[in-house]
Amino acid sequence: MDIFTIITVLVVLSSIFAYINVRFLRLPATIGLMIMAIILTIIVLLVGQFNTSVTEYAENLIGSIDLGNLILDVLLSFLLFAGALHTDWGRLKEQAAPIITFATIGVLASTFVVGTLFFWVSNHLIGYEIGYIYCLLFGALISPTDPIAVLGILKKIGVPKQLEVKFVGESLFNDGVGVVIFLTLFNIAERGLENVGASEISLLFAEEVLGGMALGLALGYITLHLTRSIDDYETEVMITLAIVMGGYLLASRLHFSGPLAVVVAGLFIGNSARETAMSETTRTYLDRFWELLDVFLNAILFVLIGLELLIISFEPSYLTAGGIAIVIVLLSRYLVLKVPIYFFKDKLNFVNRTDLIMTWGGLRGGISIALALSLTNDMSREYLLTVTYIVVVFSIIVQGLTVEKLIKRLGVMGDK
Predict the structure, then answer these.
(1) Angle 135-75-321 (CA atoms, 0-180°, nearest 5)?
(2) Residue 147 has pLDDT above 80, yes or no
(3) CA 77 vs CA 74, 80, 97, 232, 285: distances in Å
(4) Contacts of 105 (CB under 8 A, 6+ apart)
(5) Of 265, 159, 269, which Cα lies nearest the Cα of 213?
(6) Are residues 364 and 387 in the same domain?
(7) Do 269 and 221 share a structural domain?
(8) For 262-320, how does the pLDDT look when each residue is reduced to its tens digit (9 = 90+)?
(9) pTM score, two decimals?
C-alpha cells in the first residue's frame, strides 16, 4: 500500500473520530480517539468473519506501517518538543530534585521490580517460559510514563500547579531515560551479559543521556541567536521545525538520546528564546503552530494504537498475563514513588496523596508499544507485545477516565 493512501486513511479516520468525540463523547482527545479506533477494529474483525477482504485490507494497512519506527523516529520528536515548549522552567526548577529522582532512579528501580515480578508470574503462574533479561526489557519499556498521554489528560482536568509540574517534568524526562535503559538491556540480550562489560554499559548510558542533554542545549542556543537576529514569524517558526527534525536526526547519528535532546531544546526555546528573542506576533504563531501540530499528531498516534489491535494475539495465557501485569506495573510505580516522596516531603510542598495520584495518573502510551514492537521474535515479541498492549489500553482508558474522579475524591483539585 502506497504512503499517500496510508496517510489519507489515517487523516480521514482521525478527523472523523475527532469530530464525533468533540460533538458527542466529549472525552479527552487521546482517550476518545483510541476508544473509537478500537471499536472500529472490533467491527472490522466481526465483519471479517463474513467477508475476509475487509480484514485483509485493514491488516494490509496496518502491516504497511512500521509503527515502532514511526513513533520513535518521527512522531516522538515533535510531540516531546511541543510538550516541553509550553512547560514553565521556573516551576520545573523548583521541583527539580523529585523530578530527576522519579525520572532516573525511579525508572531504573521500576524496571527491575516489574521485570522480576513479571518473570516469576510468567514462569511459575502462567506457565510461559521466558528469560529474565526479556522480562527486564518489558520492565524498561513499560516503566516510563508517556508524556503524550499524560499531557493530553492534564489539559482536561484542573490539578494544583506543583502536582502538574511533577507530572509533566517526570513524563518528559523519564521517557528519554527509559529508552536508554531499554537500549542497554536490548544490547545485553542480543550479545549476552558476558560480552558486555560494566564500563561499556556506563559509557553507553552517559553518552546517551549527557550527550542528548548537551545537544539539546546547543540546539536551544542556536535557535536563540538565529531568532534574535531577525523578526519574521514565518521563518522563525520554520527554524524551530528544522531544529526538531535536524536535531533528532543528528542525535541518532551521534548515538545521543534524541528524546532528551528535543526536550531540553524545547524547554530552552520555550522559556529563554521565546521570551527574549521573539516578538509577540512570533510567539503567537509559534504557540498556535505547535499546538495544532501536537493535536494533529496525537490524533494520528492514538488512532494507530487503537488499530494495532488487529495484530495482537488473543492467546488466553497472554491475556491473563496482561491482566496480572497491570497490577504489577501499578504496584511497582507506587513503591518507587513512595520512597522519594517520603524523602522530599519536608523540603518541598507535596499535595495530599501525591504517591497515589501519580501512580494512577502515570499513563503508558505509544512509546511502550513502539519499544515492544522493536523486540525480535526470539525475545518473546508476540507475548510481550500483547501484554504491553493490554497495560497501555487499560492505562489510557480506565486510568485516564478515572484519574479526575480520584483527584476530586482526594480533594486536591486546582484551577482549570
Answers:
(1) 25
(2) no
(3) 6, 5, 25, 24, 20
(4) 336, 340
(5) 265
(6) yes
(7) yes
(8) 999 999 999 999 889 999 999 999 999 999 999 899 899 999 999 999 989 889 999 99
(9) 0.93
